[in-house]
User: Fold this.
Amino acid sequence: MRKPRDFDAELKALEDKARGLKTRKVRQIGELVIATGADTLTANELAGALIVLAETKEAGKREAWARRGAAFFQGRSRRSAPATHRDTDGAPAQPGSAQPASGRKGAT
Assistant:
C-alpha cells in the first residue's frame, strides 16, 4: 500500500519556495537600480519613469531600450566588482575593485 501524500507539507514547501523566489526577484531589482545609477532618483521620479516605460507600446523604442540594456549587461560582465559593491556615496572604491569612485567623473 502506498504512503499517503502530505498535502499540507507540500503546500508549505511550495509557499516557501515562492516566497524565496519573490525575495530574490526584489533583491535583483534593487541591485539593478543601484547598478544603473537610478538610486540617485527620488522614489517618485523612478516610479514615474517605470510607469512610462511599462505603458510604452512602440516596438522601436522598446527594442532600442533592450539593445541599450544588453550593452549595459555586457559591459558589466567585464568588470570585476559585482553590482552590490558599487560605490554610491563618493567614498574611495573598495580595494581590488575595478569600479572608480562615483565622485570621479569621466574616469573609467
User: Anything to note?
Assistant: The longest helix spans residues 7-36. The chain is about 55% helix and 0% strand.
